[in-house]
Specification:
470 residues; Rossmann fold; Uridine Diphospho-n-acetylenolpyruvylglucosamine Reductase, domain 3; Phenylalanyl-tRNA Synthetase, Chain B, domain 3; 5-stranded antiparallel beta sheet; 40% helix; globular
Amino acid sequence: MALLERFKEYLIKENLIEKGDSILLAVSGGPDSLAMLDLFCRIKDEYNLNLLVFHLNHMFRQEAFAEALFVKDVAENYGLQVILEEFNVPEYIASHGYSPEEGARKARFYFLQKWASQYKIRKIGLAHNKDDLVETVFLNILRGTGLKGLAGILPLTERDGLLIIHPLLDILRLEIEDYCRKRNLNPRFDRTNEELIYTRNKLRNKIIPELEKEINPGLKGVVYRMALNIREEEAYLNKLASEKYKEALLKRDKEKLILSLEFLAREERVIRRRIVQNAIRELKGNDLDLYAVHYEAIEDLILSSQTGKYITLPEGIELRRSYGELIFTRNSPDLAEEDIIELLEIPGEVVWGDFLLKAEILQQSGKWREERGNKKLCFCDLKKVKGPLTIRKRRAGDSFYPFGLQGSKKVKDFFIDEKIPVTERDKIPLVLDKEGNIIWVAGYRPDGRFKVEGDTEEILRIEIDYMGGD
């Protein structure tokens, strides 16, 4: 079957479009997005589609400026309006601590959301293909995942009132590149896709080809079919959990949502987890990406007998026990944020906001020196630290002794010197000892008073990992 017919068949099978739809197409100028644009243009009249092209110059590479002009020319040759945006993603990820892929994704969605709203468009087309789905499944396995992660990328998802469609998920990358050649589309290729410094690229260019060569030449097809089967099972469980959620719901208003703890405790863990996801989705407006440590914390909270106990999840979502109720609230970004305080045992781990912090004890004779210089790690002389540790945001008058500098410095002045935006400063966790001394401005600078020295016997190693959603 010709690729155009397969494209149309997939759109219909997955209910991705209707006649008269308006669709905002994200076009980078690479093979995938260029093929998607061309395919949509070929069915535009048949389905009476209104197409708008969007391109974001992430400013990662010098050639990105020429690529933006290329996309503009292509779109205009199709007779379509095109929106070009520029955003300094390298600067953005440096100030927020995101990975390049994560920072680019957040920036891209922000602008897609902005223009979809301005043009009153509800559907956004993204050009992920079958290879991307397979790679995503592997990435989720490596990260640790449940059924949702094993389903990979879904053909249709809803986020903040927008419908995100992936019309190329049934098509392999090689088929897309062949289509581009036959249609003389002349796509642009991002050379960074070949670099092995990113995990996805290692999977794409090295690990998956090796598995195909040594284990199963049909690996991609096998993983793709597995993902489809899991998607069906996940959909069934979600449907069941949605019905259970309505039974568990005690109260819902603009500010909070309350579930019955007694009802939750009776349910199986797999359903209980999905009921919580439903509650967060209703409160937040879209899904929240959570890790295993989040779900364990939620489970402990539900089964705990301690009233008043609470946990804080990414993006300001708070869950609190109050007698027979589990109360969900979301901190408004327009209001002063609560000074959330979490205890970190040694050893132990804790979630604070969008971060997971871990503490462990090492021996001086170990290989810890090889990790020095990593800003996500802090090493202290254990005997100088009085635990448990406390994690909180900055407060007026906070000061510490930045490692490598002479004397003390106010945290406020340190943030100014580091050029950390004011809007981000309350999101940075401070790690303090039992006596209230700042040990580490997490991700930035340890306190020199706790440094490892020649006579240190045991070392406290603290690690911070970003776990925010999207």
